[in-house]
Amino acid sequence: MKYVLVTGGVVSGLGKGVTASSIGVLLQACGFRVTSIKIDPYLNTDAGTMSPFEHGEVFVLDDGGEVDLDLGNYERFLDLKLTRDNNITTGKIYQSVIAKERRGDYLGKTVQVVPHITDAIQEWIERVAQIPVDGKEGPADVCVIELGGTIGDIESMPFIEALGQFSYRVGPGNFCLVHVSLVPVLNVVGEQKTKPTQHSVRQLRGLGLTPNLLACRSSKELDDNVKEKLSQFCHVPSSSILTLYDVPNIWHIPLLLRDQKAHEAILKTLNLGGVATEPNFKEWIATTKVYDKFNESVRIAMVGKYTNLSDAYLSVLKALLHASVACNRKLVVDWVPAENLEDDTSKEDPDAHKAAWALLKGANGILVPGGFGDRGVQGKILAAKYARENSVPFLGICLGMQIAVIEFARSVLGLHDANSTEFDSKTKNPCVIFMPEGSKTHMGGTMRLGSRRTYFHVADCKSAKLYGNVHFVDERHRHRYEVNPDLISQLESAGLSFVGKDETGKRMEIVEFPGHPFFIGAQFHPEFKSRPGKPSPLFLGLITAACDKPVVPASKGYTTKITKGILGSHSPMLKAHNGNGFKSPNSSLNGVYTSTTANGVCVDGSC
């Protein structure tokens, strides 16, 4: 097994995730099988209990693991199915070591950070690297490891020590270190400054790790004299110093690495030059060129509570992008703070209220994503009502589906106090209730998580057609509330159709409003399994309806086809890849264009 470690210096948020993913793509293009591991030094066992303001969205895996959003990036970029063990945290490591101590595995010894914690980290990496995640038998050829945080962080120290020991254990021909650093350009002098990277590398070397490659983030390509200076002070060959500068869309990043011969430097370090093939990026280049030429756009109003933090909806944005690319449209996301749609805001801030409604009414489609808590719920209900009554394409995910049901109960059934017990535990008409198997005392890992099967109960519904007329689908879940089964007959008699249910037939998974161009709610999170070239069927349905095009039933197996003229089976866009990445200079991020939000803050989207 060969290992590539990606670390970061100077500041966080430089794009270690997209760098690691792009390296993986580059190695795949050279004919190697790749797996990925993300190390997060925080003490949390997993990301499940953290606010999106802390680390962005919580990504959910098939096995129910609640993990860092970078693992979603790896899955999409490299087309992998990772496990919860592919995300290492300080909490998991300490938990495993303490469990061993309690069992008596270290009987008679003093349990210490070195060697017990560092050994546990190394053993975890070696064990997980052997797990196949690409659908093939046997372990991968290369494991790409991303160390979260910044070199010098106190919480990272045990991992850095462990990785230093690990590099010695596996040997120089089996370990390659890529250090991502910042080379800022000061506006006053317009000069690229190397001192931050010099200090970062010096600190890294002082901790026992020596970089083989430098990946320098900058607003423009590094000058030759800057590379020479970095080479001299950082002891890295200038040919191994890469520039990762701002690009129009994320698909350029692996091409940047290839053009700078990053694969040659990595393969040389790993002694893989003799068995590698020349990287094949023919389809990737076609994808990049075609996307850059898109002229027509599709506008989607994202109605949520974290609209000033696009990472909170990262997978949703990527799923929207995958679908819009398949429809040959440039995606424009209008961020609509749900609170600003509410009547109270019309009194407190009439300008924000007016702007929010203008964005909502100007969109081609409306999406209400998942979430927790009661802030902005009334605004989401108003958005669902507007979409239902005005035939605007609508997709509600998780909480968004529950919102659609609550709105229908209030507006159509006349149950004006209909609500979720999450927001009003004393409501007389609970449309959404706490699931009986859930825990009310422990929050972490107690939701209905991971891949669950949904059976279609209405063969002629839009959702079944989008999924290819299959009898069931497996999608990922993350929720602790569900639609009240006691109200189903009443809701369906009034016009709603619960077309998808779980294996018991009592838990609602998909709801539709027949007669509407596209009004669908899903209890699961379809965005987590969306892939470039294979967009989520429900997202593809939303974008197709937003483009005012009819949806054609798909062939079995998730490959959704759109009417002729939108997407042909030989379209080069079918093989597109993307990942979390770098801001472009033309007011877009990763290919998603956004407008000013209703609260006056301009927010960039992420594909």
Task: Walk me through what this model shows.
The chain has two domains: 2-288, Rossmann fold (3-Layer(aba) Sandwich), CATH 3.40.50.300; 294-546, Class I glutamine amidotransferase (GATase) domain (Rossmann fold). Strands 17-16-19-20-21-13-12-10-11-23-22 form an eleven-stranded mixed sheet, with helices on both faces. It has a seven-stranded parallel sheet with strand order 5-2-6-1-7-8-9, with helices on both faces. Helix content is 33%, strand content 19%. It is α/β, with parallel strands linked by helices and 607 residues long.
CATH superfamily of the largest domain: P-loop containing nucleotide triphosphate hydrolases
The rounded distance between the terminal residues' Cα atoms is 32 Å
Q: Estimate percent helicity.
A: 25-40%
Low-pLDDT sequence parts: 553-590, 596-607
What is the tally of helical segments? 19
Strand percentage, roughly? 15-25%
Q: What's the structural domain tally?
A: 2
Question: Residue-averaged pLDDT, rounded?
Answer: 88
Query: Order of strands side by side in the largest beta sheet?
Result: 17-16-19-20-21-13-12-10-11-23-22
Tell me what the CATH architecture of the largest domain is.
3-Layer(aba) Sandwich
Q: How many beta-strand segments? A: 23
CATH class descriptor of the largest domain: Alpha Beta
Question: Rough shape?
Answer: globular
Helix and strand composition category: alpha/beta
Any idea what the radius of gyration is? Answer: 25 Å
Characterize the largest beta sheet: strand count, sense, and whether it forms a barrel.
11 strands, mixed
Determine the CATH topology of the largest domain.
Rossmann fold
